Task: structure prediction
Amino acid sequence: MKKTLLTSAILASLALTGCTDSDSAGSSSVSSSNATVSGTANKGIVKNGQVTLCEASKANLDTESCADSIIKQGETNDLGRFNISDVPKDESILMVLSPIKDDNGNIITQMKCDYQTCLDNGKEFGEFFDVKESFKLTAIISSNSDAVTANITPISDTITKRVKSLNQLDKVEISTIDAGEKLVANALGLSSETIREKGGVDITDPEKVKQAVDAGDSEDVFISQINAVIGEELLKKQANDKAYDVINEIKDGDRVSKQKRDTILDKTETINEKIVKKIKEENVDIDATVFDKIKKEKKDEQIKLDNEVLDSIESDSLVAAKSLVTKIRTVLDASQEDGKLSLAFNNFENDLSQIDPLVEDDTNTAIERLLDGLLAVVNKMDPDTSNELSKYEVAVDETTQTYKIKTDNLELIVRGTLDIDYNHLENEPCTSDIDQKEVSCEKWTEDETINSNITIVSFRSQESDVILSSGGDTENAGRLVVQDLNFSSESNYQDGISSTDSQNGNWQELTGQEHTSSTSEDNSLRDIKVDLNNVRLRTMDLVNGVTFTGNITLDAKDVRESIDKNSQSQFEADADDSSIYEDEYQSQKESEFTAAAINTTFDGRLETTTATLSAKLAVELNNPNGIVYFEQTSEIWRHWGEKLDVNEYAYSNSQSSDSDSGLSTGMDNDGNYVAEDRNNYLRGSITASLSTVLDKDKDQQQEARLSATVTRPSLLRYDVSSEIKYNENELDLTTLIDPESDDPTKIVITDDNATMTLYENEEGQTAGEITVKGKAVAKIEEPKNDVILVNYALGNDKFELNTLF
Result:
């Protein structure tokens, strides 16, 4: 049993992932498309603030508050940071920062003083003070990735106001948010690609400033200074100060000029003086002149009129849509029969004819020899292991706890120990002699707990044309870590025999014989981690040889395995004619395997004379409800015999067997396994990827990569995502397979800039659209069979048609 639990874990992980019950009904969705939104609230740093995320509806945006459709809430910590998970992806979201009150109604939200007005009111630079009840700061974002960084700052508040002036719909489109970011970035001379992620540095803390500068992100500090300037203007707006309302200048987009931008940037000078002063006071080594250099760069940035920015957005969207279509065509052409992508994989397929020795008996023998060697080492480590399992002589160095095997075909070096707690209880056997019937019975129990940290230093296993090896003088082959591996078993055996005293020739005259036995095993494992590094499998042919090099990892948690075995054998001779007999044997085995989580990864490289293929397979299982993988087998064997004369016999026999296996939530009252249902099912995913280098012998090498991930978020639903790369053309494909849904199955193809959605309409024709930043740029239709058109919207009721396939 000790050598099979790990094998069971690997095999069951693949079986658990591959099985499903197509007859089951229902769908309990577990979303796999949520995002995490994190950032910093900085006006300066705001601690103990309430961060509310809600739908970016027109109603919420008009009041710049989360009046309804609240999604999530969180709070800022002492550093002003927040982290909010389970946020819906690909949505327009409004974030509102507001004060928090304690149980007595007192505001506990505070912000740091980093601008002139609070200094004039007697605060120190960097001192926290209570915010007013009317305090509010906003940001508007699109949750378009798994992890979204978005700071809540005066600049983000300005973007919200700009989006508010642009929006005409009940729900803000992602493209409108993109336009707002670009317009504000243009007005301030900033990059629209990073504007939401910048400006979160605490400029009152010299160490934080130094960290940003040392990390090469001085611009982040400068944008934080701009936040302080705009933050002060926000306070003037709230106080109805008409001296200089920078917000109106930017948010409305009227008459934005280089002179007005320079005025804003020059106002950072006062803030910079405060930073430099504090840097000197605390003896922090920073070249503060870098901020003046950045200010000059921002002043030199070209400023565009708003309509020029918006026109460029429309133009960029059209370019992005056409670029996506070009990439799709390029990949499809390369995949055709004579295309480079097709030929490359075909050539590799031809090379596979040389790999036969890697998958034939020689490889299996080499692996079995390695396992036998490891078992022999475990035998040396564990004195309670049967000596019959050892096939090799093991040399032991007690000082270094090193175990070595060296033969012509196997070399193995292992270092480590087993921590074993073993207990064996055995009952006294019982016998009796009643009416010439001898009965014997035995019962024993075993309990063993093992912990280990074993290092496989190196191994080399050879069989005919194949060598399997890893490790050496500079790198270990891998390690095995076991935590709380427990084996518990209980066995019963009973034997009853009745016979005559006579014997005729070679035929013993038995009138009856019966054997029964049962074994119950309950094994558990808290955690097991196996890492094998740089495993090398190669053929001996030096001319046409093939080599595989790769890593194998396994991590299994809370593994449970129970096994019940029962057998019964009966021999019965005819009471009147002992030359006629019947022999029957019956056996049943039932096993259950489950684990809370199993993650297995195979990552390697296969090289032939003409191609290189990198391959990766990752199996991840998440099993919170304890779904089990069960196997049931039973066998009945019957043998009849008749003695015809002293040296002649007649025999006949029959054999029958039955087996069942699958996934189950447990047993019902009748002892039958219950299938998965909508509430209890196995979660998991499989990721596979292949990549190869095209034109290997040429200077301009080309790369092709294919990868796919299948995720099971609910009982009958499977999410499939794929990635294709051919040279510089990269495409992501996703689809949802849900038999219970009435909606047509959609295929979504994306690159970094545009998204194409394809589906089959009610007429059985291909339809869809291309979107950029959430805005439809082109429609896809199939007016004639096998002719799919892309209809680009050019604006002003103008369109451009092109074929897709």
Summary: Residues 735 and 747 are 5 Å apart (CA to CA). The chain has a mean pLDDT of 78.
